[in-house]
Design brief:
mainly alpha
């Protein structure tokens, strides 16, 4: 599926949901007097909010992994400082090395990067679709 088709599907799904939100309440199809242009803007806003939430959740996962790694590093360093025998020191050094070798999961980092790129794509698509629609409405208003 091409990027344009993905953007259209996102916009269509969200616009449909936004456009029809008022029908259940007995309102007009626009949901309380909204125009379809406003419904399209609401749909893009909703889709982008959902994407921003995904990015925030993944960022928290990365931050959480960093916080846990810091605690593990501190505990390993404390063991090393308290170690007396050569065997205890070797074990503590191995534990410290394991703690500092990177505890962030690459899969989460890659997912965060991909979701951020998707957000960028969505923002560009939203801007283009809203501008194009506004220009079309302007053209129709001049002809009418």
């Amino acid at each position: 599926m091409s990027d344009v088709n993905i953007a259209n599907q996102i916009a269509n799904d969200n616009a449909y949901a936004t456009f029809n939100k008022g029908k259940a309440k007995g309102q007009s199809a626009g949901g309380g007097g909204e125009s379809w242009f406003e419904a399209l803007a609401d749909a893009w806003g909703s889709a982008m909010n959902k994407q921003a939430d995904k990015i925030t959740d993944l960022s928290k996962m990365v931050q959480g992994a960093g916080d846990a790694a810091d605690a593990t590093k501190q505990a390993a360093q404390a063991k090393l400082d308290a170690a007396v025998t050569p065997g205890e020191k070797a074990d503590a050094r191995a534990e410290l090395n394991a703690a500092t070798s990177g505890s962030d999961q690459p899969s989460v980092m890659v997912k965060l990067s991909a979701e951020s790129m998707k957000m960028s794509f969505m923002a560009n698509s939203e801007s283009t679709s809203m501008s194009s629609t506004a220009q079309a409405l302007e053209t129709m208003a001049k002809k009418g």
